[in-house]
Specification:
Blueprint lengths: L3 H25 L4 H14 L4 H29 L5 H6 L3 H15 L2 H20 L17 H16 L4 H10 L4 H26 L10 E2 L2 E2 H23 L3 H21 L3
Antiparallel strand pairs: 1-2
Helix pairs in contact: 1-2, 1-10, 2-3, 3-6, 3-9, 3-10, 5-7, 5-9, 6-11, 8-9
Keywords: Cell membrane, Membrane, Transmembrane, Transmembrane helix
Pfam families: TauE (PF01925)
Membrane topology: Multi-pass membrane protein
């Protein structure tokens, strides 16, 4: 049993992290790792988690939290008939296959590699959000067929698993680039989040099993203190962010989220120096 003061300190830090993540998720309309991973990174650093496993712990814990939120979101969108179930059926192997591959990379790759991938992807997505005409970009009139479609699904699962996100940002970008409406993309992304988070959750527990230096109450690269705290706190605080979001225009929100991602990217790039 770890010392009680270590548990109390971690609980306090993660409670603050959950409040920040909840507000930002409500403000920017996302609930995945784009917000959670950087907040966890700071919280676990303050808790004294070693640099070589900190990013892996952030990614694994983020994906564990995404499971219930993705399932709830998918259920709601499915009832409205907004989910592209044909695409999800075609990706039933491709996306989890990519997610499992990501857990192998996490288990054996240095934490610096994960920080680098996260920094580059948040930089690219942030720049896209800042460009006002990016929503008009197109790669085709409809989704590609296999094997290209399988490859896209595998790649989305791999990248999402590597940086601890539910795949919404990447899948939204993919579907809209192939002329699918944004509302259908958002709804389908909830299902993609389930396909990514479930196998990643299992893989990150196995890959991090009994690793030295993990904080109190962790199983592999999943910290249960964070999971237990973040879900209810983010649900409670997110409406405050939503209220703030409705006071802003769509362009102001896109710009704000883009700036947020660029700041996060810069923070992770700075960690290499």
């Amino acid at each position: 049993m770890p010392p009680i003061h270590e548990i109390v300190e971690l609980v306090a830090l993660l409670a603050i992290a959950g409040a920040i993540a909840g507000f930002l998720a409500g403000l920017f309309g996302i609930g995945g790792g784009a917000v959670l991973v950087p907040v966890f990174y700071q919280a676990f650093a303050m808790a004294g988690v070693a640099d070589d496993i900190r990013m892996k712990l952030c990614v694994g814990t983020s994906l564990a939290i995404i499971i219930p939120t993705s399932l709830r979101s998918f259920q709601s969108h499915y009832k409205r008939g907004a989910v592209d179930m044909t695409l999800l059926r075609k990706w039933i192997i491709a996306v989890p296959f990519g997610a499992v591959a990501s857990t192998l990379v996490i288990a054996y790759a240095p934490g610096a590699l994960l920080r680098g991938v996260f920094a580059v992807l948040t930089l690219l997505i942030g720049l896209k959000m800042l460009y006002p005409k990016s929503a008009e970009w197109r790669l085709g009139d409809d989704l590609p067929e296999n094997p290209a479609l399988f490859g896209y699904g595998w790649f989305i699962g791999l990248l999402s698993g590597l940086i601890g996100i539910g795949g919404g940002t990447l899948n939204n970008t993919f579907m809209t680039l192939f002329n699918r409406p944004i509302h259908q993309a958002v709804a389908t992304s909830a299902g993609v989040g389930v396909l990514i988070s479930l196998p990643s959750f299992i893989g990150n527990i196995v890959g991090g099993w009994a690793k030295p230096g993990l904080p109190a109450l962790s199983t592999g690269y999943v910290n249960w203190v964070a999971v237990a705290l973040i879900i209810p706190i983010t649900f409670a605080i997110a409406p405050l962010g939503v209220r703030a979001a409705h006071a802003l225009t769509k362009r102001q929100l896109s710009f704000g989220f883009g700036i947020f991602l660029l700041i996060i990217s810069a923070r992770f790039f700075y960690s290499f120096f």
